[in-house]
Write a structure and sequence with these properties.
mainly alpha, disordered C terminus
Length: 201
């Protein structure tokens, strides 16, 4: 059942092009089968907004929320590593994990983009597939908080995702609070090889 949620959220967190906006009945049908009920209600609440606004409104909100605000970007490794060499290594490890399961990225796609991470979780399953979501839980929580603060309907989707992941421990909460205050590390390119510079872009 989590796989259905991850696949649906992966679609809904992509840019709302005409094909996605025309798929309202299929999206509603997929959401209706989600469990538990709290997750179903959150996704349905998002769809109530998503399918009621004009295409231009949905597209403008997506760009303003995810493309123009760093605090609510969809690239999960940025929250923990910023633009440092550690992020480059994290991206490389993600790509290697995907390749081991036969998932190939399109040219120019970064492996930490949340829709891609969710697609991998849906396809590869609860163990290895969901590992990137668990590893980047801090980024998910910071994204959720930023969406809640801005009042974006997309917060419902991210809340539904974190609802089905393991509960946070005290140490995790402390780390998230520290990241929220300090922000991600600043740019650090010393010692970053050409391959890692390329993958971090």
């Amino acid at each position: 059942m989590r796989a259905t949620l991850f696949q649906l959220a992966s679609l809904l967190l992509t840019y709302p092009d005409d094909d996605l906006l025309r798929a309202g009945p299929e999206l509603r049908e997929a959401a209706a089968g989600l469990e538990p009920s709290g997750v179903r209600e959150k996704v349905s609440t998002f769809l109530d907004w998503f399918l009621a606004v004009s295409p231009m409104t949905a597209q403008r909100h997506y760009v303003e929320t995810f493309d123009l605000r760093r605090r609510s970007g969809l690239y999960l490794t940025y929250y923990l590593h910023g633009d440092t060499r550690k992020r480059g290594m994290a991206l490389l490890m993600l790509k290697q994990r995907y390749r081991a399961h036969g998932l190939r990225l399109a040219d120019g796609e970064l492996p930490d983009l949340l829709p891609i991470v969710l697609e991998f979780a849906a396809v590869a399953g609860p163990g290895d597939g969901e590992a990137p979501l668990r590893q980047h839980r801090q980024g998910l929580e910071l994204l959720r908080a930023a969406l809640e603060e801005s009042g974006s309907p997309y917060r419902q989707l991210v809340e539904a995702i974190v609802d089905v992941l393991p509960q946070l421990g005290d140490r995790d909460r402390e780390a998230i609070e520290a990241l929220a205050v300090d922000g991600p590390p600043e740019l650090e390119t010393v010692g970053l090889g050409p391959d890692l510079i390329e993958v971090s872009r």
